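Obj: model holo form, ligand = MF3.
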Amino acid sequence: MTVHIKTPEEIEQMRVSGRLAAEVLQMIRPHVKPGVTTGELDRICHDYIINEQGAYPSPLNYHGFPKSVCTSVNHQVCHGIPGDKELREGDTLNIDITVNKDGWHGDTSKMFYVGEPTAKGRKVSEVAHEAMVRGIEQVRPGATLGDIGHAIQTYAESQRCSVVREYCGHGIGQGFHEDPQVMHYGQPGEGMTLEKGMVFTIEPMINFGKRHVKLLADEWTVVTKDHSPSAQWEHTLTVTDDGYEVLTQLPGDSL
Ligand code: MF3
Ligand code: CO
Ligand code: CO
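Output (holo structure tokens):
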């Protein structure tokens, strides 16, 4: 396992990529409404990333992924492929943005409500957000990856939700997915010790029902086996002298 420790100059590059990824989520917000298709959302993000940001949408052609962003609706857990389906009042969806600017990746995702969400959709979205925040708050030099996973898992399970185990956060930099793997479950004190200059994502996928998932025939879209709603939030962050800096948080925004 090779964990790249980033220099201050490299982290400055990643601040730029992280900000751009966050700005795509901010830009797309007003477009998320009943009747829009996920394919249209993808096209708007694609054009913005290429033409306004002078960046590249990292998912496009990544291991054959056919679109520029991931859109995962309701019981879809992650890696949903944008398409012709129209969003409907009550849907909850995750839009996951990764941009490559000057060779450096920034990766962030959040939940959107289409009108008023279902009660279960709202609950699991809120739990996933708080789980991510609790994971982030563990980050400092000397803490371990297990501390992060444990904070996420204990909170999610205390809310009677479950943590998806098959997919995890990841180191990020000039590679989209670098070491280490950042599990969203675990035991305090276990796993790799965090060091200043590491950059990775925390991106828990939380299910309202059971944790088990399956892969659809398109070989990308992950859904819950029991069809219960799922939610995910993601930030890219770096370990600082005394804690963390979130690279995908815009000034004035909450996490
Ligand atoms: N952005 C996703 C992540 O958080 C990865 C998407 S890979 C893709 O790691 F190929 F599905 F786009
Ligand atoms: Co990621
Ligand atoms: Co992502």
